[in-house]
Specification:
By secondary structure, the chain is of the alpha+beta class. The chain has a single domain (42-191), classed as 3-Layer(bab) Sandwich (minor pseudopilin epsh fold), CATH 3.55.40.10. It is built from one helix and nine strands; from the N terminus they run H-E-E-E-E-E-E-E-E-E. It has one helix at residues 11-62; strands at 66-71, 85-86, 91-97, 103-111, 127-132, 140-142, 156-162, 178-182, 188-191. Strands 1, 2, 3, 4 and 6 form a five-stranded antiparallel β-sheet that branches. A four-stranded antiparallel β-sheet has the order 5-7-8-9, covered by helices on one side. A hairpin with a 5-residue loop joins strand 8 (178-182) and strand 9.
């Protein structure tokens, strides 16, 4: 009676398999890292966009002027919202204003820059925010009709990049950094500044006015 003989891998075959696996991992890790970093940048841009949209919605609902502000101050539920606005974050707050443009004490919404980052130190955060064309108040304010205090023709912008902005595609790098644009009329959208609207006129990712 014949019996089947089963044999395992030889040491040489095992070593070749390990070498091939290591080679594949070496090739895949840079792509995986880029994908994860792109996800971080997009998530941060989406967070800023959500905050701005929340401010506009609350202005319409409350029939009040509502403000979106970036700040480096610590903010918690029920905290004093007399925070100092800046143009770099990492935390954003949405708060209602009175007729004189001062906070009413109503904290509508906020998102800490440390939330979901697995970091406890702001300096260790991966994403960075750089704003441009902000109004003199340093904040975006939505009136009861949903319009903003933005006066720049191309709107106010929030650029989301890693610490080294040269890694962005627009600077010749590999990362798809994001931009959030707010117009005078209150339109808020996220776009990719590396997409050339002249070369790609039908690409909806382009940062056109």
């Amino acid at each position: 009676m014949l019996t089947a003989r089963f044999r395992g891998f030889t040491l040489i075959e095992l070593m070749i398999g390990i070498a091939l696996f290591a080679l594949l991992m070496t090739l895949a890790i840079p792509s995986f890292t880029t994908m994860m970093n792109n996800t971080r940048l997009r998530d941060k841009g989406a967070s800023i966009m959500a905050g701005l949209q929340s401010a506009r919605s609350e202005a319409l609902r409350r029939n009040l002027t509502v403000e979106f502000a970036l700040t480096a101050d610590a903010v918690t539920d029920g905290s004093d919202i007399g925070v100092t606005a800046n143009g770099t974050g990492p935390t954003w707050v949405v708060r209602a204003l009175d007729a004189l443009g001062a906070p009413t004490g109503t904290l509508v919404d906020f998102r800490s820059g440390l939330e979901g980052s697995n970091q406890t130190d702001v300096a260790a955060l991966y994403t960075r925010i750089a704003s441009a064309s902000l109004p003199p108040s340093g904040t975006i304010r939505f009136d009861p009709l949903g319009r903003t205090n933005v006066t720049a023709a191309n709107g106010a912008t929030f650029d989301v990049t890693p610490a080294d902005a040269n890694q962005c595609r627009v600077a010749g790098g590999d990362l798809r950094c994001m931009r959030v644009v707010v117009t005078t009329s209150g339109r808020v959208r996220m776009c990719d500044p590396s997409v050339d609207p002249v070369v790609n006129p039908n690409d909806t990712r382009a940062c056109t006015p």
